[in-house]
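Batch manifest, entry 17 of 40.
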Amino acid sequence: MSPDGKRNQLIQAIGFSIIAIGLAVLLVTYFEASMLLIVPIALLVIGAYVMIAVGILGRNKNNWNAGEKKTGRILFAGSLLAVVGILFIANYIWPGNEIILLALALIWLGVSVMLMSKKTDSFASGRKVAN
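Output type: structure tokens
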């Protein structure tokens, strides 16, 4: 194992991915849906996990400005996985709306890029520093 713990993080990510796939299989069989929904449901669960556990709860609270870029990238990756899963599930439920779903995905991508391109100083200036 490497001293920085990256191997441990990789094993945890693989373990959670296996749990997400198992959950997706359970949901698909319970609702008697198509087996093709296993991948989008797993993407949705993994994306939500990345956004909540890794992105929001896992950031370094003592050094906000240093971890903000990394946190933003992790939140973007997690929300990207979740949005792709949601779009595929929506296309399964309401077929024939690919153009509308593509437009919604592009709007989401544009808003995400605009939020990620904001200067970190503008976020930090609104916070009060506790002495």
